[in-house]
């Protein structure tokens, strides 16, 4: 899980919201997740992400991208595609993906 939030960004930008249900700590998941984080952080146009998981296995990851082209590069990345196939076959009971355009953004942080 991420321990910090992505601050308000200058709109417009795009979000990819990935919600999933999976067993706690399935074999190989942590390593693949770390590799996916490594890859996406290097992509031009990637702005950050936040993730959380409940003890019952529901997870939410929100990734932020400057534009749809940047998001498309991530979506079509070969290692990401392989991880998605493996996830469907082995890790996830179900998931959904929602893509959105952000037109307004702000944040607050207590000093």
From TrEMBL:
InterPro entries: ABM_dom (IPR007138), Dimeric_a/b-barrel (IPR011008), Jasmonate_Hydroxylase-like (IPR052936). The keyword Cell inner membrane does not apply. GO terms for molecular function: monooxygenase activity. Its EC number is 1.14.-.-. Keywords: Monooxygenase, Oxidoreductase. Coiled coil: none annotated. Residues 16-85 form the ABM domain. This is Antibiotic biosynthesis monooxygenase family protein. It comes from Streptomyces lateritius. The lineage of its organism: Bacteria, Bacillati, Actinomycetota, Actinomycetes, Kitasatosporales.
